[in-house]
Amino acid sequence: MSSICRICESRIEAPDFRAPAPAMTSLSTLIAAETEVGVCPGCGHVQSPDLPDVQAFYDREYRISLQSDDHDQLYEQRDGSTVFRTDRQAELVLELDLPEGARILDFGAAKAATLKKVVDARPDLEPHVFDVSRDYCPHWDGWIAADNQATYDLPERWAGRFDVITAHFVLEHIADPVAVFETLRRCLAPKGRLFFTVPDPLANPGDLLVVDHLNHFTEPSLRAALSRAGFGTMDFRAEGFRGAHVVVARPGPGDETDGSPAVAECVTSVRAALAGWGGMLEGIARAEVAGRRVAIYGAGFYGTLIASRLGEKPVCFLDRNPHLQGQTHLGCPVLTPEACPDDIEAIFAGLNPLHARRILPHSESWIPAGARLIYLEG
Predict the structure, then answer these.
(1) If you average pLDDT over residues 202-222, what whole number do you get?
(2) Residue 112 contacts by C-beta under 8 Å, 6 or more apart in sequence?
(3) What's the CA gap between 351 and 48, in Å, rounded?
(4) How far apart are CA 149 and CA 291, in angstroms?
(5) What is the pLDDT of residues 97-115, one digit of tens each?
């Protein structure tokens, strides 16, 4: 079935990838749907079909980090300390060197945990928040003025208001990204900046299979979307956030540079990654673990994907995130790696396959003697 590109409106003649149900969401939950991905030959954009009722999904079902007040996603271990995703996002915003008293909007704020850390470091800033659900309002009340909060629709009075607008891993969920970029541009002050992060499907290939990520942005498709929305200056910070595009954009004339060579290269790379996923999913299904005691390292997206395709319930998940430890996931306990049962016979690396061997080497002292370590292989 053909579709129309959300960025350049070229026709995508047929999906480049299909996988049977269940499908994976960005919150590591499973839904009864097929996974379908198409690549646009015109701008290099990668997209998945709309959810049946996308507005209701984000208003009533999408509950990011609402398990507890301090729930967060693990980003990295740095010098013996745990760095969470909101920590890294706050670092990036503070690196923008915002002017004194700047007005800042966190678009798609959820609990606004990142913004709270930014304002704690810069109390002179005037915070504003927006989301498509009222479930997060209790987390905003008390430190963000009521007039600086908005849900469902951006107020007309916010036109031209903001020195900076941030959007942390939001735009991949939106059905019409060019229209949203245009709306955000109108909310910026004349010298304002849009700062956002979105997954990079070539640096984090699992993103290609996330069913509620309607957009899997490549650099060429982001440049095309921003240009169409009235942004001219675009600064891509490749090393800012692992597995993501980090972009700072300013309003201005669009880029007229011929990007077709970059688009063609991008399309080839994405299609190769999708073909690799076909092999990896088949490899999980073929793994000889029937009747064996199996653990999965990683209780996030990759670990959940493995569990959904195994056909054998794991004994446990192993994870370094203290917010997950002691919980259950898919009916299995989440343990620290050091608590891995001694009788585990196989451990699947539920990690980004580009980095899994570095993050989880065979030399880890906690791995039970004789346990087989299985990596995702394309």
Answers:
(1) 96
(2) 106, 127, 129, 136, 139, 140, 144
(3) 22
(4) 53
(5) 899 999 999 999 999 999 9
